[in-house]
Structure formats: structure tokens, C-alpha cells
């Protein structure tokens, strides 16, 4: 998968966010092989709460910032049917909000890099057609894919901390 990253302020230059994103892509491809199709392209924007707030209001009618938004360009059926030969195809766009990501990481006492990796994996699974809001069974399936992907990256299960609280 080709990944086009745009990193805007207030994301710190101290972290190689593009390398982190590529690592997340490679890990999720091992768990969800439909995302390994070489024709796929995805854009990932690291931005601010203000920008994601505007997007959330415009596209989801939710007047608040959120941690990650995904904008799929393919249906799950189209993704699964996509031949590996041919021109590039845009899978979709993912947008992350720095202040919300940092706040959530601090609340969970985890590194922002680990939390951001989780959110990138989460966003990619949404682009692949998974949706935790459809049903409890779909939420569980998506959660398990996230946990397996993060384990490949050496990142602890983010849901076990929720259950322990």
C-alpha cells in the first residue's frame, strides 16, 4: 500500500510519524491481507483538534473533535474483489487529531506513539470495511484484529486496560 502522509502542527517533529504509520500499515497488512493489495493508496493526515472538529461537524454532524476519522473510498466488497494488477486505487483517507490523541494517551498512561499506532490501525480497519458501530459482534471482531495487529508491533492490548479499570 502506498501511504501519503501529511504532518501538520501541532504534531511534534521529535517523532518520525511517517515511519510509525508505515510500521502500522505493515502490521495490519499481516492481519488483514486484503490491505496488502499493491494497488491501494491511502492518505494519512496528522492534524489539530480544530481541523478534525471541522471535519467531524461537516461529515458526521458531530460538533466536537475526535481522535481519528476515516473516509473510505471503496466498499468492502470492492476491496475484496480488487485485482492486484492495474492502476493505483485510493482506499481512503485517515485524519488524526494531535491534542485528542495526546490527551487520551496521557489518560491511559501510555506513550502517544503507541496510542497513535492503535488509531492508525483502527482507521485502516475502518477503510477495509470494518465498523464497530454496526453491532457488538462486529465491534468484537474489529477489536480482536486491532489487538493482534498491535501485538505484532509489540504494543499492549489497549482494551485490557479498559476492562481492568
From TrEMBL:
An individual GO BP term: rRNA processing
Molecular function, one GO term: RNA endonuclease activity
Keywords: Cytoplasm, Endonuclease, Hydrolase, Metal-binding, Nuclease, Ribosome biogenesis, rRNA processing, Zinc
EC class of the enzyme, as a word: hydrolase
Protein family according to the UniProt entry: Belongs to the endoribonuclease YbeY family.
Entry function: Single strand-specific metallo-endoribonuclease involved in late-stage 70S ribosome quality control and in maturation of the 3' terminus of the 16S rRNA.
Name listed for the protein in its UniProt record: Endoribonuclease YbeY
Organism: Alteraurantiacibacter aestuarii
Amino acid at each position: 500500500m502506498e501511504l501519503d502522509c501529511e504532518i501538520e502542527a501541532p504534531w511534534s517533529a521529535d517523532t518520525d510519524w511517517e515511519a510509525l504509520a508505515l510500521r502500522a500499515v505493515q502490521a495490519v497488512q499481516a492481519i488483514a491481507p486484503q490491505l496488502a493489495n499493491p494497488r491501494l493508496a491511502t492518505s494519512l493526515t496528522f492534524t489539530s483538534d480544530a481541523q478534525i472538529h471541522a471535519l467531524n461537524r461537516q461529515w458526521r454532524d458531530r460538533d466536537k473533535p475526535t481522535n481519528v476519522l476515516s473516509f473510505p473510498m471503496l466498499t468492502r466488497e470492492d476491496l475484496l474483489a480488487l485485482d492486484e494488477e492495474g492502476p493505483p486505487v485510493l482506499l481512503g483517507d485517515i485524519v488524526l487529531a494531535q491534542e485528542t490523541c495526546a490527551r487520551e494517551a496521557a489518560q491511559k498512561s501510555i506513550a502517544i506513539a503507541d496510542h497513535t499506532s492503535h488509531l492508525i490501525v483502527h482507521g485502516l480497519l475502518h477503510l477495509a470495511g470494518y465498523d464497530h458501530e454496526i453491532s457488538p459482534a462486529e465491534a468484537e471482531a474489529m477489536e480482536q484484529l486491532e489487538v493482534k495487529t498491535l501485538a505484532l508491533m509489540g504494543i499492549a492490548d489497549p482494551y485490557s486496560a479498559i476492562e481492568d479499570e
